[in-house]
Design brief:
The structure is a homodimer. By secondary structure, chain A is of the alpha/beta class. Chain A contains 18 helices and 16 strands. Chain A folds into 2 domains: 2-228 and 442-454, Glycogen Phosphorylase B (Rossmann fold, 3-Layer(aba) Sandwich); 239-436, Rossmann fold, CATH 3.40.50. Chain A is 47% helix and 16% strand. Chains A and B meet through helix 6, helix 11 and helix 16 of A and helix 6, helix 11 and helix 16 of B.
């Protein structure tokens, strides 16, 4: 088995004496895959070298990971930047999450077409690395939107290996895909129909099929849904650790014995943080009985701050929070508590302490927080969950539904959650925990393996 | 027959002595309908009183129009403002044109829900005015996105009259409609399926049906396409008038004997003006032979300047144009000529003078300029036309196709248009003129009448 993902399980740091220290790689895909693959001697993980130190480790032949066959690809830095920062993060991410401000973005000019060429080249490099490594008949599991073209290239390079592509994000609507150049969408769909295409839930399978249908290619596609919940043991380790205890004590001091609405998110446009605060403001305005009774605790990890649109969004988030605190705060009551340190134990402590968990993305492939929260929480927190999150398909009967663009509806959902009686909270909490544990990652990986088949392009 | 539209055929101005002068109403719907209805004694036109003077004319019983039975509704100014400025122009227009910057807009808070109540109330007032005026069995033709709910209300109030609704804009995609609150979309779809729903082209019929399909209501809807081209005689009047001649002479002085790419548009986000300039910049960059040979003449009428997003867009347009002129301008060659006076004869003169006409909206219900241009033009201008404009369905075989988000593709389309040989230009120009004349407005009106049937809601 070969797993192919953009980020790998390790990242290297070079010391002054030329030796390399391995650290665990970042990101949700890595967290899910690492415990499954470690110790398996039938698996190879191919990923990109991230940054100069990783590239140096490749050149020094220093990439070795205990219990795991890892191959890092040393890619041309500028080509890799165009592939990742420009196409993956600013084009495909925005397209699949429906985030384009279409009067202004995207602008597919010569520079962006060149970036697409770079995206192609990196995907090609991954496919060639797979082709060079795979034994006849191997299973190749390609991960996520950085590698959309790999399945298609493998159809040419290695028609003997069995391939699955899995997309961890949402999939866009026909009108969103139509904003990409014709050649770009043609290549994406050619590759995603070359091998079975997996998504977290039926919602995105449907979105994918709808695009194919609008392209006059409705029938043939082999698309399926399979997903995974959090890694409960490792969550429990963090929850039981000193850092979470310290963070919990500090939070308790800040909010006292008030109720807490909690959110923990990357500071990411799709997470819909501003509308969440506006819903809390409407709650305080229209249901004044909650004033001084409830604080909104937002643990927000800064993200992609090299991009102006993310910096702008962060400042919008902070401005709205400050305005609400100015308007309503009194005595020792801080209505909105915003913490933008990147500190996982602190997020865990907030999830333990929550009375209500707000997860209201405008669109989200799955959203693991919606499942981590119920596993960590100690107060039968009510989950207010966006219908546009993939996790909604799994948790809908135990959550309070949120329409993420409708701030008044979100305020009503928060009100219902805060007012919910103890028995119903307890019953829902059991339902949420059960559902969160019902999708072990090893079954997800098995699904990808069993679905795999030789890649074939239409032509 | 009763025609119901937001803007009517006249607008009044009150003099100091209390008398009223009628002026022709503004907008494309009025231009199409006025010549068809004037002189018909079987037709009544119901529209809103726009502004204080119109309302005063209603109160003074001074609304009388030669050859036309007109009823203006004096609406509560604040309710009307919320209906028109907020819901029609900032919500429905943005939704149907796919213009929401979804991380930020829409924010359906209490104020916006209240604006929706106002939209409802105004639609109700229109429906009640129709109900009070209509004779048994009358045909009622409801126009456009300001009045989406009228057909549904008529199903209750006057199940005996025959109704058609016609939408002059595009229709949104399922994911775009899903950004509106559930009650809002439910009311819109209930009304638009209560009576036959007309759109300019099959493209929007398909978009409408796709939404219904995604709502699990694919079959029943009675939706159809019918459209109208420009009013050729009145265009010819303007084209032959002194004002157009003067504007033409002044334009000739400014551009000399260079080739002209022309666009004439409202300064509207959906018109995609910035990407048009960027495509011209890429043309000059990548095909330097066109430098000094071609000017881009943009006649842009300022629009909705009370909204910050339109003011911002205007400044982006002017900034890009200035940058291109700074970068490429030399001697007496002004690469981009921008004129933002609201002056129709000036636009007509530019359309007469064009060698290439660029119509590249990100989305447009029809786009009359794409048909007016060929009728006015004197140089067999090549039409570069966005596939996202309704007019593309009618003109595609004679136009050069534009993917409006793909600036490089647009630059290539402009290049192909400029380089096209005389014979092909002439043949295409004939095709465009023929197609532009093939959709007389009276046939469109007949279609609406013949489709009309009693409105019925599903419940």
């Amino acid at each position: 088995m070969i797993v192919v993902s953009h980020r790998g399980p390790v990242s290297f740091q070079r010391a002054d004496d030329g030796t390399f220290t391995a650290r665990r790689g970042a990101g949700g895909v890595v967290s899910a895959l690492d415990p499954l693959l470690r110790g398996r001697d039938d698996a190879t993980w191919i990923a990109a070298a991230i940054g100069d130190d990783d590239r140096a480790a490749v050149q020094a032949d220093a990439v070795s990971v205990p219990g795991l066959a890892v191959e890092l690809l040393a890619l041309d830095p500028e080509t890799h930047r165009l592939h990742y920062d420009v196409i993956s993060n600013q084009i495909l991410w925005f397209c699949f999450h429906g985030l384009f401000d279409s009067a202004r973005e995207p602008v597919f000019d010569a520079a962006l077409h060149e970036a697409w060429d770079a995206y192609r080249a990196i995907n090609r490099a991954f496919a060639e690395a797979v082709a060079a490594t795979a034994a006849p008949g191997d299973v190749v599991l390609v991960q996520d939107l950085q590698l959309l073209l790999v399945a298609g290239y493998l159809a040419e390079l290695r028609p003997d290996v069995a391939v699955t592509h899995f997309t961890h994000t949402p999939f866009g609507s026909p009108s969103e895909l139509a904003m990409l150049p014709d050649a770009v969408t043609a290549e994406i769909f050619a590759s995603l129909t070359a091998a079975p295409a997996g998504f977290h839930t039926e919602h995105w399978v449907h979105a994918f099929r709808l695009c194919l249908h609008e392209r006059g290619n409705g029938d043939g596609a082999d698309a399926f849904a399979t997903t995974f919940g959090p890694d409960a043991p490792s969550l429990r380790d963090v929850a039981g650790g000193d850092a979470a205890a310290t963070a919990g004590a500090s939070l308790a001091e800040r909010v006292g014995d008030r109720r807490c609405i909690v959110r923990t998110d990357r500071l990411e446009l799709s997470k819909n943080i501003v509308r969440g605060f506006l819903a809390f403001e409407e709650l305080l305005t229209t249901r004044p009985a909650w004033r001084e009774q409830v604080s909104f605790v937002a643990m927000l990890n800064p993200s992609r701050e090299s991009l102006a649109t993310y910096r702008d969004y962060r400042s919008e988030v902070e401005t709205v929070a400050a305005r609400i605190n100015d308007r309503f705060g009194r005595g020792d009551w801080e209505p909105v508590v915003v913490d933008t340190r990147d500190d996982f134990p602190r997020s865990v402590a907030a999830l333990q302490r929550a009375d209500v968990l707000l997860v209201n993305p405008v669109r989200d492939g799955l959203n693991l927080v919606a499942m981590e929260g119920p596993l960590l929480n100690e107060r039968d927190a009510v989950l207010c969950l966006s219908r546009e999150a993939g996790a909604f398909d799994l948790l809908r009967e135990h959550a309070v539904e949120v329409q993420p663009f409708d701030v008044s509806q979100t305020a009503a959902a928060l009100d219902a959650a805060l007012a919910m009686d103890t028995d119903e909270r307890a019953a829902r909490a059991i339902g949420l925990r059960t559902a969160a544990l019902a999708h072990p990652a090893d079954r997800w990986l098995d699904d990808l393996v069993h679905r795999a088949r030789p890649a074939r392009t239409a032509d």
